[in-house]
Amino acid sequence: MYEPIRSKSVHSTMAGPTDFPRRSRDEELDIQLAGHLAALLAVTDELRALAPDTGLDTGLDAAAERLAEQVTRLRGGRAPVRLQVAAGRQEPRPAALHGRAHTLAARALVVAASRADTAVAILTAERMDAHSSALEPRPLASR
Known about the structure:
Layout: H1 10-15, H2 25-54, H3 60-74, H4 94-115, H5 118-135
């Protein structure tokens, strides 16, 4: 009824050998984790720029340095680009920035757990705690 295929498939001849480099799963996770940490660093730098005006946590400086160290390690020694925030920003919204930072830290924690990177997992869990506590409403001071 049917005649067997006698020639090679068009798809197999067009694909041919791949001449682009392939990355391993660990390399892909490193790239993804470095991206999440770099984004968290950018938000942390933005919060640091607001710190003198709003009296935010001074632990942001230490956290930013630890994040920068991890990004540098994951990128093979290339330091991350640091955010320079203009002083003339209108209506700073630290609550929105803390929420964004919490989300980024959670994403980084998932990837760090997948990679079994304990140092980054601890760092991101600490940042999640810090940002969630910054989002909690504080009781008004007694007068």
